[in-house]
Write a structure and sequence with these properties.
The chain is an alpha/beta fold. The protein has one domain: Rossmann fold (3-Layer(aba) Sandwich). Helix content is about 40%, strand content about 30%. It is built from 5 helices and 9 strands, in the order H-E-E-E-H-H-H-E-E-E-E-E-E-H. The strands form 2 sheets. Strands 1, 2, 3, 4, 5, 8 and 9 form a 7-stranded mixed beta sheet that branches. Strands 6-7 form a two-stranded antiparallel ribbon. Helix 2 packs antiparallel against helix 3 and helix 4 runs parallel beside helix 5. It is elongated, with a radius of gyration of 19 Å. The N and C termini lie far apart (about 60 Å).
């Protein structure tokens, strides 16, 4: 019995949780316009970003597609379609949900995807993704780095403010995050929540 308990404990001890020191930083500009604007448009950019140890997303996806297709015909192609779909759906939705939840509590600006007629637009650009992994007894959280610009919708060269979010962690528990998209979507949720908190603090 003691050996069984010790064996279970040893399994838990090898679980690896990445320590993510999330940081939101105002690089330049002024957030005060968010005091008066009720709604912002938001756009998400997924171009030319690194993934894990790969400098370019394409290097990562080419490797994963080849590996999965070698294991099972068509599996890699399905994985790639889901990888791209998450960038258009799941990640933006999570970011917006948590940002708006935080801002609504204080009655401040919310953001909507593809909202027309807004004076300002928030551009959320992904600069790095760590997909993480969950191998039952060994686990690493996903995380993402984002560059955020608030620009004038009619003249996007007019940057009102620029911020960065570094190492936003996709923390999940149990076996709910076996899917890469789940882990990464939680990183975007955390980023939206952290940004709302930072903005509200800046507007006090």
């Amino acid at each position: 019995m003691k050996k069984s308990i010790l064996g279970l404990l040893s399994l838990f001890l090898v679980v690896s949780f990445t320590s993510n020191a999330q940081k939101v930083k105002l690089v330049k500009g002024d957030l005060s316009i968010l005091k008066s604007e009720a709604i912002l448009n938001v756009e998400f950019i997924f171009n030319d970003f690194g993934v894990g140890k790969f400098k370019k997303e394409k290097e990562y996806t080419d490797k994963k597609v080849a590996e999965y297709n070698a294991d099972e015909a068509g599996r890699g192609d399905k994985w790639f379609a889901a990888w791209k779909a998450d960038q258009q759906g799941r990640y933006p939705a999570k970011f917006i949900e948590l940002y708006d939840r935080g801002m609504n509590k204080a009655g401040n600006a919310i953001i909507n995807l593809n909202q027309s007629g807004t004076k300002y637009t928030m551009i959320v650009e992904t600069t790095f993704l760590e997909p993480g992994f969950n191998a039952y007894v060994v686990k690493e959280y996903a995380n993402c780095n984002l560059k955020i610009k608030i620009v004038e919708t009619a003249n996007k060269d007019n940057v009102i403010a620029e911020l960065t979010i570094m190492k936003s962690p996709g923390r999940t528990y149990g076996l709910s995050d076996m899917d890469t998209g789940v882990r990464i979507s939680e990183a975007y949720a955390a980023a939206g929540k952290a940004l709302a908190k930072f903005v509200l603090k800046a507007l006090k």
